[in-house]
Design the sequence.
């Protein structure tokens, strides 16, 4: 499916969306013209607050009017069929979309009340505060130590070598990788297994003590055992960090997150506590998706 | 027959054809590669066969007396006298002593022609290095003239070339040969001297130093500029019409015939900026301009081949664009950039045409001592020698080609080695 949408032509779909709980005949392939997110998309104590965000790639609109809050120290999962814009949305949160030519973000994204798209904001600082873990493990072709130490080094977080050693060890411990790599810290990070590489990337991300960690399908390239370890890790990390995770696997969303957001064709359809989304979805599209009707 | 077995039959029939086509294709490839290798082999064998003679030179042994009167030197400390002294008289008198029967003026001239006219200077060097020899005599191996060299090398192969010698000379030579006073020695002059009108005295050193100076300048100018341009275009420049225009024009420049760059150098560097002709500075400038597009293109290719995931990782960690490029992209792209630079340098080393336009084609006997001394370069030296009428320059030409080719091969090997050495896997 691609993100190009036919706008406002089908009254049937519109009508169906307006009666979210009944409609089982909603067409999942066409975009509803009028739409409002259902569920509890606003929270008290929000770490990040996203209001009416639209994202465009050139002329194509990829994200339509998304509003959602991300609470402090919560894990929010974003699910939805391929091409629904969940990754694009995630990348808007630390302005990684800036690096994509022709990508434009409209709307209001705030972290602790600070406008992330204000011209006064420094992206480098933002990315130190909002870390990111990518779909494919992408350690630098450097040693394990240098991978983890890179962030603290460029941001000047460690004054001495001892401090740096400490940060590296702490980060690797928190990413539960320390025991496996402590004897080969100076070997290439690219020589680790896929799951270890991904945990190394997580260690690298948390080494600068970010406030929020964005994870873009962090387990999609991993086997089930490595996936289980990462999920365990996410649960541990959620005590200290706010985590937004995009995932393709509904089971994973169910296991790790407190709230789940369902994206569909660039629209945010429903946000609710994870348990509710998977047992009693409010919206017909969500229900179709989680029951495997499409996606 | 059922449908599925019919299909199977068709597949099996088509397989025969497919395998035959694959085999034919493989053979085509093998034939092409073999032909290429044979051509290279033929070229190399021809060059080596023709040029090997240049690495040895004919010397003849004569009894030389350092006669003070002959030299007209009364005070050995007087530099002026040393300069104007008739050093050639030394080997001439030695020849006369060797062949006392030669009386006629014309015959004497033919006799003197056996020895290189540069031999007098070699004798001067000997005497200056050891002043006690003055008034003494010693037996010295003197460099023979190029015609004698050609004759002797031919004689050794059983096919002496006598067209440029008179009968008397052949007789004298035979006399020297039978008394074993003629021999081939390693031709150190070829590697130690500059160009000369006399083939036996001509050497490649001037051209080698000239090439080196020119290339050093080319590298210093084009490598940093090329890499900076590539990094800017690839990582920082906005993608708009202007950068597209620049990109198209860089690709065009890479395809411009090199002689055009020579004309450009002539028009801009010489006529407008008044940089002197024939010096490595101007050669380096022109070759740098010529190499720049190649370096930019290969460097850009090297930068693009760095996986985007590494860039994302760096940016995601909060690295600035500059840090991303310097810490991650550049180290990964460097081997490719170096390879490109070396290949560009190799091309610049072999370049002749643009240098003809800026006066580096001049006859220059002195070995250049710096960037502003008149110089020529290896390929131009080859061109000059190939153009010379003397028969002995044939082997010099081939030998110079060998020297040039070995430098080129050396550079290409180092490019491969550098790439293997610096390459990092991810």
Sequence:
């Amino acid at each position: 499916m691609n993100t190009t949408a036919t706008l406002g032509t089908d009254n049937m779909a519109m009508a169906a969306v307006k009666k979210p709980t009944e409609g089982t005949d909603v067409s999942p392939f066409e975009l509803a013209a009028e739409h409002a997110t259902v569920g509890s998309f606003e929270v008290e104590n929000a770490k990040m607050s996203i209001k009416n965000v639209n994202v465009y790639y050139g002329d194509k609109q990829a994200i339509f009017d998304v509003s959602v809050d991300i609470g402090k120290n919560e894990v929010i999962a974003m699910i939805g069929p391929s091409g629904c814009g969940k990754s694009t949305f995630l990348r808007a949160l630390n302005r990684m979309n800036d690096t994509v030519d022709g990508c434009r973000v409209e709307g209001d994204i705030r972290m602790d009340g600070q406008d992330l798209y204000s011209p006064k904001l420094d992206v480098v600082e933002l990315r130190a505060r909002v870390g990111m873990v990518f779909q494919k493990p992408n350690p630098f072709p450097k040693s394990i130590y240098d991978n983890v130490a890179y962030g603290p080094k460029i941001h000047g977080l460690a004054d001495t070598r001892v401090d740096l050693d400490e940060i590296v060890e702490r980060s690797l411990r928190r990413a539960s990788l320390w025991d496996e790599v402590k004897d080969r810290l100076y070997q290439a990070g690219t020589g680790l297994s896929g799951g270890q590489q991904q945990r190394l990337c997580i260690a690298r991300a948390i080494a600068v003590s970010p406030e929020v960690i964005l994870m873009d399908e962090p387990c999609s390239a991993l086997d089930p055992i490595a996936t289980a370890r990462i999920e365990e890790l996410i649960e541990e990390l959620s005590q200290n960090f706010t985590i937004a995770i995009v995932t393709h696997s509904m089971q994973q969303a169910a296991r790790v997150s407190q709230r789940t957001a369902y994206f569909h064709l660039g629209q945010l359809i429903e946000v609710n506590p994870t348990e509710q989304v998977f047992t009693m979805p409010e919206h017909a599209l969500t229900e179709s998706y989680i029951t495997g009707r499409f996606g | 027959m059922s449908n599925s077995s019919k299909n199977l039959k068709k597949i099996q029939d088509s397989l025969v054809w497919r395998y035959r086509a694959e085999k034919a294709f493989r053979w085509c490839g093998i034939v092409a590669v073999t032909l290429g290798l044979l051509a290279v082999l033929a070229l190399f064998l021809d060059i080596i066969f023709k040029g090997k003679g240049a690495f040895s030179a004919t010397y003849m042994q004569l009894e030389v007396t350092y006669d003070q009167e002959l030299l007209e030197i009364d005070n050995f400390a007087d530099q002026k006298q040393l300069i104007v002294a008739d050093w050639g008289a030394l080997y001439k008198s030695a020849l006369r002593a060797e062949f006392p029967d030669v009386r006629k003026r014309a015959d004497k001239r033919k006799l003197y022609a056996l020895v290189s006219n540069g031999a007098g200077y070699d004798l001067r060097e000997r005497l200056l290095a050891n002043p006690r020899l003055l008034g003494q005599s010693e037996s010295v191996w003197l460099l023979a003239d190029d015609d004698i060299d050609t004759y002797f090398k031919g004689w050794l192969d059983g096919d002496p070339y006598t067209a440029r010698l008179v009968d008397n000379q052949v007789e004298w030579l035979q006399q020297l040969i039978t008394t074993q006073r003629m021999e081939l020695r390693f031709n150190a002059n070829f590697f130690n001297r500059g160009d000369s009108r006399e083939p036996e005295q001509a050497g490649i050193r001037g051209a080698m130093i000239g090439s080196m100076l020119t290339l050093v300048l080319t590298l210093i100018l084009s490598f940093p500029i090329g890499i900076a341009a590539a990094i800017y275009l690839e990582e920082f420049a906005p993608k708009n019409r202007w950068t597209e225009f620049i990109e198209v024009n860089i690709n065009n420049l890479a395809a411009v015939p090199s002689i055009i760059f020579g004309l450009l150098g002539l028009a801009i560097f010489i006529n407008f900026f008044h940089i002197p002709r024939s010096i490595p500075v101007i050669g380096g400038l022109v070759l740098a301009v010529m190499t720049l597009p190649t370096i930019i293109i290969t460097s850009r290719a090297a930068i693009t081949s760095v996986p985007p995931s590494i860039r994302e990782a760096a940016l995601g960690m909060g690295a600035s664009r500059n840090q991303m490029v310097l810490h991650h992209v550049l180290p990964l792209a460097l081997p490719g950039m170096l390879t490109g630079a070396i290949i560009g340098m190799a091309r610049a080393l072999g370049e002749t045409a643009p240098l003809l336009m800026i006066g580096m084609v001049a006859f220059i006997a002195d070995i250049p001592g710096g960037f502003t001394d008149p110089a020529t370069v290896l390929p131009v030296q080859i061109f000059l020698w190939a153009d010379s009428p003397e028969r002995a320059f044939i082997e010099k030409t081939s030998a110079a080609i060998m020297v040039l080719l070995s430098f080129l091969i050396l550079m290409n090997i180092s490019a491969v080695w550098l790439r293997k050495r610096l390459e990092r896997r991810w």
